[in-house]
Write a structure and sequence with these properties.
The chain is of the alpha/beta class. Among the domains are: about 270-565, no CATH class; about 610-630 and about 680-885, von Willebrand factor, type A domain (Rossmann fold); about 635-675, no CATH class. It is built from 38 helices and 17 strands. The chain has an 8-stranded mixed β-sheet with strand order 5-6-14-13-10-15-16-17, with helices on both faces. It has a 3-stranded antiparallel β-sheet with strand order 7-9-8. It is elongated.
């Protein structure tokens, strides 16, 4: 080793055994002499040996040490980067992490060498703090943090290291998952906001370090919604909450609590359907006179979507944030709701396809497979066509213009809103945007202000036939051509399609004179048949369904041909529709927002065998139950005035008639009043616990001579007798089963929806009920509330049948306690009360009083001591419970 002071070098090895001195000499022999001399002169090599002795032994009397050998072999790599005064810091870190990774001290992590000396010292302190709590977490931070820091601007590193130090001092566990995303998160902020927000988070980390990792995870999302000032205000609110309840603070900064989301949204212009649900429900009722339900859809389009079926809830988007102000977004909600109400009020769903079918062109008749019945509603009609989404889009466009004109004529105050919404071409469905510019002008002139839904459908049909013909005009690339067709001018009084501005369409093929004549005859016949209808059918409210749009449907000709032979549904059924529900966490005293995912699972029945067998088994009891239920027939009366015949004179009407007579005005003959009976208006939903424990066998009394039965079979027998009895009094009812396996896997089994009669399919599904998994009651109750809210019934009941307390694999932090589940279910039942729904809990768990008295009021639960008597008792319990409400 030329130019190297060997005496000084060997002195640096002092303390090592001969074996390890020789080992180190062999490693250093490959090094440049000048570099070695620099290490000797600076004391780095001696410090390195000293730290090796302290960390791994290897003194003169020690045997060879494998870990020390790894350490010595890493000398050229590590001393090339480490300065003398940090060697001790580094070896202490490696010693702390040795239990997590024995090879960790043989190399430096990526990016470490390019950090400044100050940044490295902060890094050592941070990693050692984490290793003291959890060596594995310390090792993960050691590997990943330097590179994450290196790719950040140097001025952002000090505040970020302060933030991480505070967080790791409290709880290092969440940090390894956050570190890789630090750079992308900070790059998503504007440069002007990065330092300011990091400094604000550093302040928060001193107050509430538990929130740091959670905040860093959602920082980009929150910044996109509310910007720098919005986040600062939101952080301040979270600090106040965390001061009172640390659990609530953690959920707040993770954006898991409802309060957190609401406060964040409070500075955004977005409007959610859940916030305006009640207002829009009343608004629709005011416009159409029908009590209907509303369901969420992920799609925002104008024209708005059709419901799944004519009896389904009306779809509205779950959230609107299209415009920069809350007022504009809510304005769009109002227009969408008005159009949905207008479809009911002006007959969109009132068409008789039995009358319409003979009037349709031969082209349409030829689309129907030979053995199939003609379509019975809009959904099945659209599915006749090779591109059902296209004719549906055409019909929606034409019908929306017709409905808009009718609304503008009848409600003058809506004109500006309707015209404004009609100009929003950016919200047009893709299928409509594709075909609209290709529409020939002569066809628009056929609809008049008094047009009906028949007119709109027939015109859409002719347009679809035209577009399907070879040589139809291609869609123009200039979107400005769409503006005249969507013009808000049509909502001025007297305007309809005849006032549409002419499109620039030099290549468009016009209909022949013969085709135009045929179309006129079809429309005239449709108007004549539609004029015979009197009144308007009131729609039956139904279970709320979510919508699963499939924009790619019917694009493939082979898939289209195959679809013709499948059952015709507007959107193909999937394995359950998905719903998200909040869950109450008593530890944070708040809801965890959208915490639970529920899916409806289609059921497979048993062909009705169980139902029939149960009725036969209880043949002696069934007549008695029916007689008891007959006593629930209506006994309420209301006083009605303005009748042509009645029990009493209507004094007010008589006086008015007398005045009209003396003043020469024509008076009404409706001069009587009477007390008329009020029809029962009751809806009940039965929620059945399908947990694995319902497979338990209940033994019959030894002296009874009877056989035992499973809990699930006894519950099913009770449902059979109850459903048969409810049919005798006309109560609307539904039956759902539920089971769960964690918060993201909650299954709901629709046995009977409110819209279904007690059909063969329903009877089969009751027999098909079987034990499943666990019992997350809160989410099941909230799903039941969703179904009941969609109904307009005066009295609504939710009856929960269970064999035990609410429990699930992640139903609270302590798997040995049911407190979390009980409190969540209690809050769900309170939510039912706030929605005008009366709840009642039935359990066969003899220890149920311990948790039921916390979940419910004493009058709202019952424990069935004799499980085998449930089939006979359930109808009586329902009857007495209903009677106690004085209906």
């Amino acid at each position: 080793m030329k130019n190297l002071n060997l005496t000084q070098l060997l002195a640096s090895f002092d303390g090592f055994s001969a074996h390890h001195q020789e080992e180190l000499q062999q490693v250093l022999a490959r090094m440049d002499a000048e570099i070695l001399q620099r290490w000797v002169d600076s004391g780095a090599l001696r410090e390195w040996v000293t730290q090796g002795l302290q960390s791994f032994g290897g003194h003169s009397a020690a045997a060879p040490n494998g870990e020390l050998s790894v350490f010595l072999n890493a000398t050229p790599i590590l001393l090339a980067t480490l300065v003398t005064k940090e060697i001790g810091e580094w070896t202490r870190v490696s010693r702390d992490l040795r239990s997590a990774d024995t090879q960790l001290f043989s190399h430096l992590p990526p990016g470490f060498a390019d950090l400044s000396e100050t940044e490295r010292i902060s890094f050592y302190r941070l990693v050692r703090t984490a290793a003291y709590r959890t060596p594995q977490v310390g090792a993960a931070l050691y590997r990943s943090l330097p590179l994450s820091l290196l790719i950040l601007p140097t001025h952002l590193r000090p505040p970020l290291l302060r933030i991480l130090q505070a967080a790791v001092s409290f709880d290092p566990e969440p940090l390894p998952a956050v570190v890789p995303f630090l750079a992308p998160t900070l790059r998503s902020l504007s440069p002007a906001s990065q330092t300011s927000l990091l400094e604000r988070i550093a302040q928060m980390s001193q107050i509430f370090p538990a929130g740091v990792a959670r905040l860093l995870r959602i920082l980009a999302r929150a910044y996109e919604e509310v910007g720098e000032e919005g986040i600062k205000a939101w952080i301040a609110a979270g600090e106040s909450i965390a001061e009172k309840n640390p659990h609530a603070g953690e959920a707040f900064f993770a954006l898991e609590s409802r309060t957190s989301l609401l406060l964040l949204r409070g500075v955004t212009p977005a409007v959610t359907l859940s916030d305006v649900y009640a207002i829009l429900l009343k608004y629709i009722h005011m416009l159409c006179g029908d009590a209907v339900g509303i369901t969420e859809t992920a799609h925002l389009t104008f024209p708005p979507l059709l419901p799944e079926t004519a009896d389904a809830a009306l779809p509205l988007p779950a959230r609107i944030e299209t415009f920069p102000t809350y007022e504009e977004n809510f304005r769009l909600y109002r227009v969408l709701a008005a159009h949905q109400a207008g479809r009911i009020a002006f007959g969109t769903y009132e068409m008789s396809f039995e009358r319409l079918w003979p009037l349709l062109p031969t082209f349409v008749h030829n689309l129907l497979p030979a053995d199939d019945a003609p379509p019975h509603d809009l959904s099945s009609y659209f599915q006749l066509f090779p591109r059902p989404e296209q004719i549906e889009a055409l019909f929606l466009f034409i019908e929306t213009r017709r409905i808009g004109h009718r609304l503008a004529t009848q409600y003058r105050g809506l004109r500006d809103d309707l015209a404004w919404a009609a100009s929003l071409t950016d919200l047009m469905p893709p299928a409509l945007a594709e075909v609209l510019p290709r529409i020939p002008r002569p066809l628009w002139q056929e609809l008049t202000p008094d047009a009906s839904a028949y007119d709109a459908l027939l015109l859409a049909t002719e347009l679809q036939i035209f577009l399907s013909a070879p040589g139809s005009a291609p869609a123009p690339s200039d979107w400005s051509q769409l503006e005249p067709a969507m013009s808000g001018d049509m909502f001025q009084e007297g305007a309809m399609f005849e006032d549409t501005v002419e499109l620039d369409e030099p290549d468009t093929i016009s209909l022949s004179l013969e085709a135009q004549s045929t179309l006129r005859k079809l429309l005239a016949a449709a108007r004549a048949s539609s004029g015979e209808r009197k009144g308007m059918r009131r729609r039956k409210a139904a279970v709320v369904l979510s919508l699963d749009a499939d924009p790619q449907a019917a694009q493939d000709p082979e898939a289209t041909e195959e679809a013709k032979h499948k059952p015709r549904r507007r959107r193909p059924a999937t394995r359950g529709r998905h719903y998200l529900y909040d869950e109450w966490d008593y530890l944070i005293e708040d809801y965890r927002s959208q915490w639970c995912q529920v899916q409806e699972i289609p059921m497979i029945g048993d062909d009705g065998a169980f139902f029939s067998r149960t009725l036969a088994t209880y043949a002696d009891l069934t007549p008695e139950i029916k007689r008891e239920f007959q006593r629930l027939r209506p006994r309420l009366y209301r006083h009605v005035k303005g009748l042509e015949d009645g029990e009493e004179i209507d004094i007010d009407a008589a006086i008015t008639a007398r005045v009209d007579h003396h003043t020469g005005n024509t008076h009404s003959g409706k001069l009587y009043s009477a007390r008329l009976p009020v029809e029962r208006d009751v809806a009940a939903l039965f929620l059945l616990d399908l947990s694995a424990s319902t497979d338990t066998l209940i033994a019959a009394p030894a002296d009874s001579g009877a056989q035992g039965a499973r809990v699930i079979d006894i519950m099913k027998e009770a449902l059979v007798l109850l459903s048969a009895a409810l049919d005798t009094i006309g109560d609307t009812y539904a039956i759902y089963g539920f089971s769960s396996a964690g918060r993201r896997d909650i299954d709901i089994y629709p046995v009977k929806t409110f819209a279904e009669p007690l059909s063969h399919d329903v009877r089969s599904r009751i027999g098909g009920l079987a034990p499943q998994r666990s019992t997350r009651m809160g989410a099941a109750v909230r799903h039941g509330i969703r179904q009941l809210r969609a109904l307009s019934s005066r009295a609504k009941f939710l009856v929960l049948l269970s064999d035990g307390c609410p429990e699930d694999m992640d139903y609270g932090p302590d798997k040995h306690s049911n407190t979390y589940g009980v409190r969540d279910t209690m809050m769900a039942l309170r939510e039912a009360e706030r929605n005008g729904i009366l709840s009642f809990c039935l359990t066969v768990d003899k220890a149920g009083r311990d948790y039921l008295r916390e979940m419910c009021a004493p009058a709202r639960y019952m424990i069935i001591e004799d499980m085998l008597s449930l089939p006979a008792q359930l109808p009586k319990i329902y009857q007495r419970y209903i009677r106690s409400q004085k209906l």
